[in-house]
Design a protein that fits this description.
It is built from two helices and two strands; from the N terminus they run αββα. It is an alpha+beta fold and 101 residues long. Strands 1-2 form a two-stranded antiparallel ribbon. The longest helix is centred in the C-terminal third of the chain and has 21 residues. The N and C termini lie far apart (66 Å). The model has no long low-confidence stretch (mean pLDDT 81).
Length: 101
């Protein structure tokens, strides 16, 4: 039985390396400022791990869209000021309505 001990090192210039025992704590500190952004009374932010959901309600689809865009601008400003980017390919929008079609 052969055991190979590999010592792989990499210099981290910013942030916290994936798999680090400190990573969840650092992420919680950073993410908390996102979750405490002041949103309109029509919206609510919900987070699970590193996923974020913004729930926004409106009387019409257009109104909900306008409120959502306001919230997204706030989140984008937060991301820029914290030197973060959201992956647009993983971001989704889902419309839910009680109206029957």
């Amino acid at each position: 039985m052969s055991t190979n001990n590999y010592n792989i090192q990499r210099r981290i210039a910013k942030g916290c390396s994936q798999g680090s025992c400190s990573r969840p704590g650092f992420w919680n500190i950073l993410y908390n400022s996102l979750l405490t952004l002041e949103l309109t009374s029509r919206s609510k932010a919900i987070a699970f791990a590193d996923d974020l959901t913004i729930l926004t309600r409106g009387e019409t689809v257009s109104e909900a869209e306008n409120y959502t865009n306001l919230e997204l601008r706030k989140i984008e400003e937060w991301a820029q000021s914290n030197k973060m980017k959201f992956n647009e390919n993983k971001s989704k929008v889902m419309l839910m309505t009680r109206r029957k079609r």
